[in-house]
Write a structure and sequence with these properties.
This protein is an all-alpha fold. The protein is built from seven helices and no strands. The chain is rod-shaped, with a radius of gyration of 24 Å. It starts with a helix and ends in a 22-residue tail after the last helix.
């Protein structure tokens, strides 16, 4: 009888200890990171989809700087060619390449919008103004999506480090901390256009 009671108590303690191990919390937090990454990617794709229309509208302006347009087209191609899947969110090198490509696109778009200031007929073009407004709205959405992604990364990274979740992660899951989406060094440089 003592043996069966001891087994029952041991089983009960085992079940209780599993509920506090953090396994489900870690899984839930990783899914939140993946979801927020998907949201961020969709906003980045929205921006990339606006670029060809913006470039086509700007090309119509007489004597517009071809090198500025070429830089935007090349930056868009590079930004859309580098894709990060959720399993690569813990890879600092992959995230660095992705951030650099996105930063280059942001920088070239900024230079394009600054260069447009020299073309009053282009600034007056309704299609261009509509595209510019959509691009500004998309940049705001990207900013919000980045903040949400970084917030979920913070929650996830903490959940795999805190006790007893850290034991569960080390023994069962072996998940690595996710990388934050930081500003790229190229994006920190203010674009300059000489008149």
């Amino acid at each position: 009888m003592k043996t069966s009671v001891a087994r029952l108590v041991a089983f009960f303690l085992f079940i209780v200890s599993l509920s506090g191990c953090g396994y489900n919390t870690i899984q839930q937090n990783e899914e939140a990171v993946n979801r927020s990454w998907g949201d961020l990617q969709s906003q980045l794709q929205r921006r990339a989809d606006l670029v060809p229309n913006l470039v086509a509208t700007v090309k119509g302006a007489a004597n517009f700087e071809k090198e500025t347009l070429t830089a935007v087209i090349e930056a868009r191609a590079k930004a859309t060619s580098i894709q990060i899947t959720p399993d690569k969110l813990s890879d600092p090198e992959a995230m660095s390449k992705f951030r650099a490509a996105q930063g280059e696109l942001s920088s070239s778009l900024s230079r394009l919008l600054i260069a447009v200031e020299r073309y009053p007929e282009l600034k007056a073009n309704q299609n261009f103004r509509d595209l510019q407004n959509q691009l500004e709205g998309t940049e705001n959405r990207i900013s919000v999506a980045r903040q949400r992604y970084n917030s979920t990364v913070e929650t996830f990274n903490f959940s795999i480090r805190k006790f007893p979740n850290s034991l569960t992660n080390n023994v069962l899951l072996n998940l690595k901390p996710k990388e934050y989406f930081k500003a790229d060094e190229a994006a920190k440089v203010v674009p300059q256009v000489k008149f």
